[in-house]
Fold each of these.
Amino acid sequence: MNIKSILVSQPKPKSNKNPFHDLAKKYSLKVDFRPFIHVEGVDPKDFRQQRIDMSSYSAVIFTSRMAIDHYFRIAKQTRFTVPDHMKYFCVSEAVAYYLQNYVVYRKRKIFHGKQSFKDLMELIIKHNTERYLVPCSDIQRKNIPDQLEENQIKFKNTTLYKTVCSDLSDLEEVKYDILVFYSPSGIQSLMKNFPDFEQNGTKIAVFGQTTVKAAENAGLRIDIKAPMQGVPSMTMAIDKYLKAAQG
């Protein structure tokens, strides 16, 4: 078996200081990056159909920078002036600091967790009288509304952006030895772009159980999985696979 090329279904890293660059150098591989999915903002018309009055919420929960971007985008497009007294609850400090792009940080009530939504829930519970708006995508993780409901928090999800399949038609005649996927959406994009896709000798590498399930449901043969015991990253899993293949 001779592996010469890998296609990673993600945006290209900004620098060469990344594990895939090291892997390419180690095994003399061609490694390309191409997002199989991209995000599009929900337009004001579709937002209005959700019948959400942004002024009736006293706090906003942000789980990502993208959620922040689209919250303030839709506010501007619908001519809603975000009040100075609005409270912001962010999943991490990095997400909280991103608010500086839209508000005067030191003059706003901003709270943040350490990294996980579970951490943030502790703060939300302390402010359980607020009415929370949760900007999200069309594929929001179920654990977020579940935790809010379990703790009897008054909240409303609002879909402000959605994940859509990218056009990959230019790759139709291009062949790679390994295709790398990090999400079920990436698998869905492959099958949507190439409904007659035949795997044959192409190796499929997947990260995470939900991606494994999506690949299996699509009838794909999975050759490389991560994370696994002792193999926490995708590049480590591919490295292990290539070592075994070389004998």
Amino acid sequence: MRISTHGDYLIKLTRFTAFNCYLVRQDDGLVLIDTGLSGSAAGILKAAQQIGQPIVRILLTHAHADHVGSLDALAEALPGVEVLIGAREARLLAGDMSLDADEPQTPPRGGFPRVRTQPTRTLQAGEQIGSLEVIAAPGHTPGHTAFLDTRDGTLIAGDALYSWGGLAVSGKLTPLFPFPALATWHKPTALRTARALRALEPTRLALGHGPVIERPAERLDRAIAAARAFERA
């Protein structure tokens, strides 16, 4: 697993070149954002050991297999760890694929594995978990969540966008890495989310797939412009 540091607080863990999860330094230890593919637990635990801080909390952006694949193994290895996920996405984590009446009636796409681990609690937009503000970011999945580090403006946005092969809004197909597009639930919602995340004016953008982007404003603008056709989807 490749480890890279971005700013004072963010550590990116990358497996198989294109699959990221993140450790974020907090006053009481490390927060892990997403757990990667199945088989990632050993590498994540080794990284935390090298950093010299315990993982005290696991935050999940969404319930796709490449983001919750190592949740059970990590929960078993870290007794007492907090596991938090957005309230809407918790239903998908539990295997409930039903849609609310006010949601687009398109079935969720992508792989949602069955996991044994249950969240210790669920999250609502606007909550603060240490330095991390919970941001609603639906589109890729109905309950997708992003996290904004209020100390330095880093936005950890899961698969709301992706930067492997060029920055793109989730749902925008890129030949080098088509998987996020193929697994996106509702493209118009994903575009609205991208615009809302751009309005936060993040200083750094960290995503589930691809490199971390510093000062992402111009690239976000181009990615949003390239996805305008989603409005007619």
Amino acid sequence: MTPNDAPPSHPSPRLRLWIGYWLGLFVIMHVPMDAQGPPTVIPVDKIAHFVLYFILVWLGGRYLLAKGGASMFTVIAWALVYAAYAALDEWLQPFVQRTMSLGDWMSDVAGIVAATIIIAVVRHRTATVSEPAEAAQ
């Protein structure tokens, strides 16, 4: 079989999940909302922003780790992409009758940083475990 005869490769399930989640997140964040009620003691909105972006970064990081393309530079570069996307997401909020908020963006970035740190630790541990096996060969 020649390379031209090879069946088309399909995106991995991890990649599809990551991209699908990101698209879903975009939709959720751009659905117009009714006026919000009085502030609550628990900042549910900020927690939701943190969790939603944490999951986005976690899914992307798991895909990169599985693919083997998770250098520290790549992990940090993706964190910057996510932070820029979160800023764009907040900037677009007024166009769908939602409120742009620095606090929401800071919650997004906190989730991005937390997940990025975990991805970096997992990456480091995985690299450290595989290095002795490669050195023995």
Amino acid sequence: MANRVTICDATNLGSDRPVFVLDILTETITVQELIRRRVYQDVKDYNARQTDVFQGLVQPTDAEQTLNGYRMKRVRPIDWETQYERAIAAFRNNGFILLINDEQADSLEQEIVLKPDTSATFLKLMPLVGG
């Protein structure tokens, strides 16, 4: 039986929204693999519809941040591997925090024990103006 992981995005400004559900056939997964699968799905969904807004985990090259995602300067396919590298760098540099069932993941190598109702919240950190 597959373990369902509900992927949500949130910001430190209070917004929270479900993104999609991943079905994972194993009982454990590393944080790094979960990020890889999430980024792959983000890019796959975007490339299938290719709109002018990318609603993924990290900002693609040649895009500007908007309220609901990243506005592409020109509609084009996005490379998932480039986005994955950017996401790993963002995790390492505290660009986002990953919460697994409301507990913070500490490292990319950390193993997550999956249950049928696991939730993964990607908390995107937003700089405060006037800090």
